[in-house]
Amino acid sequence: MGALLSVDNLRVEFKIDDVYYSAVEKLSFSVNQGETLGIVGESGCGKSATSLAIMGLLQKNARVSGRVEFQGRSLFERPTSELRRLYGNEISMVFQDSMNALNPVLRVGDQIAEGLLSHRKIGKREALLSSIDLLDKMGLAHPSEIARMYPHELSGGMRQRVMIAMAMACEPKLLIADEPTTALDVTVQAQILRLIKKLTTKNHMGTLFITHDLGVIAQMCDRVAVMYAGRIVEHGSVKQIFHNPCHPYTEGLLKSVPRVDGQQHRLEPIPGNVPPITAMPPGCKFKPRCSNPECLCRDTEPDLFDVEPGHQCRTWQYA
Amino acid sequence: MGEIILDVKDIRKLYPSRAARFGKARWTKAVDGVSFHLHYGEALGIVGESGSGKSTLIRSILRLIEPTEGSIEYEGIDVRALSNRGLRNWRRHVQLVFQDPYASLNPHYTIRQTVLEPMVIHGMYSQRERIQRMGELLCHVGLDISMADRYPHEFSGGQRQRIGIARALAINPKLLFLDEPVASLDVSVQAQILNLLCDLRDDLNLSYVFVAHDLSVVRYLCDTVIVMSQGKMVEMAKTEELFRNPLHPYTKTLLSAVPIPDPDVNMMQFDWREADITHDLSSFGDVRDSGSKPTIWEHVSQDHFVSLPAG
Q1: Which of A157, A215, A243 sits opposite B276 (nearest CB)?
Q2: N or C: which end of chain A has fewer CB within 10 A?
Q3: Closest Cβ–Cβ partner in A193, A259, A274 for B216
Q4: Cα nearest neighbour of A273 on chain B
Q5: pTM of whole model > 0.80?
Q6: Nearest residue of A to residue B262, measured between CA atoms
Q7: CATH value of A5-90+173-274 in 3.40.50.300, 3.40.50.410, 3.40.640.10, 3.40.1360.10
Q8: B251 CA: distance to closest CA in chain A (Å)
Q9: Which residue of B has its CA nearest to A216?
Q10: Alpha carbon of B108 to those of B11, B111, B293: distances in Å?
Q11: In chain A, which residues fall in CATH 3.40.50.300?
């Protein structure tokens, strides 16, 4: 069985002052059915550009090249009418900022029903009833009253559940979750994460989970891709990444996170900052911040080399 | 631990709720009876979720907003009795670092002006000393003096937070209030700022009141932790004691909800109730209850207190 989503050599460029700068480059990964792939990285590493490129939601100043296949067929080569049937139906997305992603002048029940009305042959009444049912499944108390409310009447956690309900309405095969819990309190985050996990298992759905939070990655994902400066620098199973990090950036990230459990160590932050896309260093993009004494850096950028089966790392060390 | 620098007793901040215009006045208790004291050189963490009143609490202590009730004593001075002039003098000793490094710096001021301004306002040092001090401060927070003539927009989030810290330190305060200083930063930069705050505290013998929603950050930086919910303190203990032996159900819920960056620790085992957490809080009795039941503070062990439902 082929992968549900496969991204091959994706490149996203943004036009700034008439010059194109690449935000995402040489990006290849795949998501299988029933599997959660996590993409982790700091701001400006190209996580969101990736998800927007897959959803075809990038602004006009962006240029995309490479191949994105959904169920074996390229997304970029399909006609708009077909894409319209696909997005919101078989591929759907949960956005980070639920206040801006919901329509402020529509009742949330109607917003959830909208997807059903355009993808399923059902009437308005029926669609509204299913949206109430969905809200109920999201664990919201009094779903029929909430369906009649406007986004501003709901708390952040409730709005996020409404967003997930919208994404789940047509039982998608692929869910793209872009920082779905970042703005939420930890207790609410814990509930939302469990909800997504439950739905992934139940619907045998493939999930692309984008976050900067290593804790969330460890708890949610089967495989992880660590992104830095628009590239995947390390890729492997959750256990491989957390127990045997090979790229100095991954190691640095893991050493930067204070923990609530276990022994307390002094944090070892990565010096410096993520380079802006307008001023990328040549060669290895991590070189200016790298403190690895065994680094076998060359002038050209390394490829992703195999470390062990299913575990790749972008350093010359494993060439 | 040394002498007490700040003693806060029974602070309350009430806001009239919307219904107050009609009939009987109703009040929303943003902060409801918080007491603690802080020793010289101590770092106190205040954690809670959004709406728990943690920011209102420190703004009330600093008298950026007027607390409704309670007493605040700083080095024996009654802060609530201070005149405007007295407040201004007091703020020479006490400074605040804000959460959002994008909003808290004046975009029209260069870094030089930003860091010099507090010294000018408080009439401290001669002109030459000020400039020299600014250079030292920038160096101390990990910035370069050559950056002094740049504007805030030329800096990254972490650098801006360093500028905010340099500005707060300019007039040599003894006590720093930090309102979510690392919440908007990336993990690698967050670690840089946390280590900077640790080092500054040791170097300058500062005391901190540190407000955060992130428990791991508080654990890293603080000696003592207060857990707040719905405007009230629910638990207070030495940091390691609190993380090893949390007693209040709310503290336990908070701790178990933090995703652990280790795939071998399965947080999904924890039994969250499906209902919205705010409904769950009602089961903790006093936390949600808007009635005027007094909170009973159970003294569990030395320096470990937990609030119990009254009655």
Answers
A1: A157
A2: N
A3: A259
A4: B189
A5: yes
A6: A218
A7: 3.40.50.300
A8: 11
A9: B259
A10: 37, 10, 50
A11: 5-90+173-274
Q: Which of A189, A213, A217 sits opposite B257 (nearest CB)?
A: A189
Q: Are B223 and B243 in contact (CB under 8 A)?
A: no
Per-residue pLDDT tens digits of chain B, which is 311 residues long: 578 999 999 999 998 876 555 666 677 889 988 999 999 999 999 999 888 899 899 999 999 999 999 999 999 999 999 999 999 999 999 999 988 888 899 999 999 999 999 999 999 999 999 999 999 999 989 888 888 999 998 888 888 999 999 999 999 999 999 999 988 888 888 899 999 999 999 999 999 999 998 899 999 999 999 999 989 999 999 999 999 999 888 898 888 888 889 888 876 555 444 333 443 333 333 333 444 445 677 777 878 888 876 54
Task: List all residues 6 or more positions away from A48 whose beta carbon is below 8 Å from its beta carbon.
Answer: A178, A179, A210
Which tokens is B86 given? Answer: 């007295």
A198 to chain B: nearest residue by CA?
B268
Interface of A with B in 42-61 (CB under 8 A): 42-43
**B286: amino acid identity, one letter:** D
Count the Cβ atoms, other than its own, within 10 Å of residue A222.
Answer: 18
Q: Which chain B residues contact residue A211 at CB under 8 A?
A: none
Verify whether the Cβ–Cβ distance B215 to A43 is below 8 Å. no
Q: Which amino acid belongs to residue A308?
A: E
